[in-house]
Amino acid sequence: MFRYVFTVSVLLFGFLAIVNYVELTLNWIILTLSIYALPLLLQLLPYIMLRVSGIWIGVFLVAQSFIGSVLYDSDYITLIPNYDERRDIKGSNIPGISGIQHITTDSNGFRTTKNISYNRKSDKTFRIFAVGGSTTEQIYLDDRKTWTHILQERLNRLNKEYDIEVINTGVSGLRARHHLATIKEVERFEPDMIVLMVGINDWNKHIREKFNKNSSDNWFIESLRPLNIKNSLIGKLYIQLKNNSRRNASKGKVNADYGDNYSKYNDSLHRDVVYEFKPTSVTPEYSKYIGLIEALCKTRAILVFLLLNPRRIKMIPLKN
After folding, report:
1. pLDDT tens-digit readout, 5-23
2. How large a percentage of the chain has pLDDT more than 90?
3. Cα separation of 221 and 228, whole Å?
């Protein structure tokens, strides 16, 4: 009876590892449930050694999940490290971008156009980390067309005393809670300034919660976030294998990209159903993590340049 109770409990634990389903694809869910169902399936076999092995596999699955939650911050997310891809942007789904774009990351998963000595910083180096979501990441733009590279080049032209480094840590979809984790991680690389472009993804989440669409913000799911399968030892290994596969698949090739994922957003302001939402305050989560970022940077004496994604840009003619 014990072995069935235990292995069923392991399977239920597997469901807890995917309860934050908004952030998991179907492949992740199938993989997770298959792994956590294995100990129970082994109990159905007539061989004692396999049944005993199933018990120990169950112990390992639960243990490695808790170990992962201690070793890794589930909110710290980067692009694939050491990535090198050339995309040929075609079609009209991504207005303003076309042709071959060279997209790379360094060993930390950051977009850079200089060789950064992270473990040894010169006294003549002024190091800036750009932290944000897709508007910082700019994953469809060539490395040397991103605003972070342009900022780096202009600052170096204006300043001859220091070597200016601008390091792009942006990843699509990240919110204030993820930005806090990124700042904690890059703190060890001695940043002189953090350029923080924040708000749009927290705003999107606020809208989804208002209309009860794909909302995952409740105390139960939040408490289980560290146990998410992606944060376990098995999850980290699977991610590394997937990253290696993607790196190898893109190496030395030019991949055509028509931006099909963006086509569903075309003409979104002209749909039949229109919603209106005028909140009087930001969400508690956004307020909390912006406050934590402010407190951390004050404590560590890190200069922060805050950029808020604008709703409207007013063009003002400049005189000579």
Report:
1. 999 999 999 988 887 655 6
2. 56
3. 10
The pLDDT score that the predictor gives to residue 194 is: 95
Average pLDDT over residues 92-109: 91
Residues 175-189 as b or e (16 or more Cβ within 10 Å = b)? bbbbbbbbbbbbeeb
The mean pLDDT value for 201-228 works out to 74
Closest CA to 303 of 193, 196, 195, 164: 193
Six token digits for residue 76: 């710290």
What is the secondary structure of the chain as a DSSP string? -HHHHHHHHHHHHHHHTT--GGG--HHHHHHHHHHHHHHHHHTTSS-HHHHHHHHHHHHHHHHHHHHHHHHS-TT---PPTT-EEEEEE-SSSSTT--EEEEEE--TTS-B-SS---TT---TTEEEEEEEESHHHH-TTS-GGGSHHHHHHHHHHHH-SSSEEEEEE---TT--HHHHHHHHHHHGGG--SEEEEEESHHHHHHHHHHHTTSS---SHHHHHHGGG-GGGSHHHHHHHHHHHHHHHHHHTT-EEEE--GGGGGGTTGGG-S-------SS--HHHHHHHHHHHHHHHHHT-EEEEEEPPS-----PPP-
Residue 319 confidence (pLDDT): 41
Give the model's pLDDT for residue 21: 55
Q: What is the pLDDT of residue 315?
A: 39
Q: Which of 215, 223, 189 is nearest to 74 (CA)?
A: 223
For the domain spanning 110-211+277-308, the CATH number is: 3.40.50.1110
Instruction: Decide if pLDDT at 1 tops 60.
Output: yes
Residues 135-176 have pLDDT tens digits of 999 999 999 999 999 999 999 999 889 999 999 999 999 999
Please say whether the beta carbons of 42 and 51 come within 8 A.
yes
User: Hey, where are the domains in the chain?
Assistant: 110-211+277-308
Tell me the CA distances in angstroms from 62 to 26, 224, 226, one per residue in order.
22, 13, 13
